[in-house]
């Protein structure tokens, strides 16, 4: 156990001892419950105990946060007053020496004001992280500390006895206390200004803070609202019993929950209903009083008419106030059109894109977390990748599928607000509506990325082809043509003196030129088989089949002459590669090629060989599949239904790539 924790429990023990001593002493002195209440022994003890429990929990769990220590200090102050007042009552009953009674009265009078003058403003100023809202607010801390003794002096130096009916006053009283009214007024103003400044800082924190800090602030706001309602009735209108001060423990309880367990309940819903009905109650009372006053002036008062008028106008006012409060706490979930418009504007901005839309979604619906996931277009296994996210994922999440054209293109994941166990019907309705444009955006983004991948593949393929051509020309055709030049020069040099040698060189020259021509034909064939231009697709395939030791039959649609060049080359390469595989590995005697033209070109090659031998994964099968995929088509190879093997390729006639806006 660290020294800080020992100190925390020590202060807790002092505060609890003071509260218990006060109550025990009041009972021992024979005080009635009403007298103990009027002497503030009951209220100070209860406030001290609540502050002590809250303070020790915070100091134990968050020892670096000064709020726990401030609450413990306030608890000691309140417990000191309770103990002093209780012991003073015993002294008066048993006739203790005057010096002892006056010492107890002094201690009790000067103890509790510190909790109000020093601890409360600092707690509000430093809540919830133990630091001021910003650098410009730091000066309020020393000002609060330096001016706190003024309020302590105002309360402790009053000649009036702490307990009603007692004539014992403390030592440190000021006889001319009432003549310092201006100073005490300034002291009261000082306290009000510091509290208002701290509340303004809380408002600034709420506006700037994230989801977690806002929820922490709402816990304190709820407690302050309830306490303010009680204190207005008790302090301003001076009605109600002293026990109304027992509402003060709500503040330390709310502070403890906010710092340690801010997600315990859906505080937004609680604050929403509290604010709503507080406003309605105040409004009804004010309007009722106004109507009664007006009706009294017009004639004999009729409270029934005032009641009817209030009843008629109550529900429309309630609905309008509910909308205002819910918009502050839940955003635009009750106005789907407005939410859709705000997110649509972020989607239309190309700079943030999906990231901006997800951030806007959290802002619009006051959600702590949202993420967009989509199927990876480049992964044939359909792996899900996270596109973007905003906020910190809570424990409970809700998933909304994103569907485009009947296909699931991704999913929207949102984090539930702290305190919510399931998604509400209102949130679900808005999220399902927002899922439509988000699905379109995810789909468009996927198409854009696919287009970029295709462009990169085209560039890579083009550069690979250029590199191959350069290598073939440089390493093959280049040396051959260089040799031709040298041999032509040599033949010319010996033509007159040695015709036989010249003839030999010319024959060798002819062979070199013939080899160069073959190299050129090979290069041209690699770019596009000449047979396609001379014979067409079917004729070129028949020519290729004649070179194989197979009986190949070819059936084709009549209008293949209109095929795009890229489709024609891909079909030729796939068929020739498939026939070569059959001839080499399938142990087949016959093969059949079917070319069917519809909205796509369907290429099928089947054989009567042994199933499996020709269709093991290898370079040939991968080459066929890549040629089909380059055009946006598919190619499958494997055993046929009736034995043998089969290759089926589907090639689109027009390759269209959509570009995301």
Note the main attributes of this structure:
alpha+beta, 10% strand, 5-stranded mixed sheet, disordered C terminus, 65% helix, 661 residues
Q: Which percent band covers the strand fraction?
A: 5-15%
Helix content: 55-70%
Give the overall shape, derived from the CA principal axes: elongated
Mean pLDDT: 79
Low-confidence stretches: 377-381, 656-661
Biggest sheet record:
5 strands, mixed
Side-by-side strand order of the widest sheet: 5-6-7-9-8
**Overall radius of gyration:** 45 Å
Distance between the termini: 62 Å
Order of helices and strands: HHHHHHHHHHHHHHEEEEHHHEHEEHEE
Tally of individual helices: 19
Look at the helices and sheets and give the structural class.
alpha+beta
Number of strands: 9
Q: Can you walk me through this structure?
A:
With 661 residues, the chain is an alpha+beta fold. The chain contains 19 helices and nine strands. Strands 5-6-7-9-8 form a five-stranded mixed beta sheet. Strands 2-1-4-3 form a four-stranded antiparallel beta sheet. Helix 18 (565-586) links the parallel strand 5 (551-556) and strand 6. Helix 3 packs parallel to helix 10 (250-260), helix 6 (113-126) packs parallel to helix 8 and helix 18 (565-586) packs antiparallel against helix 19 (619-630). The chain is elongated and about 150 Å long. Residues 377-381 and 656-661 have low confidence and may be disordered.
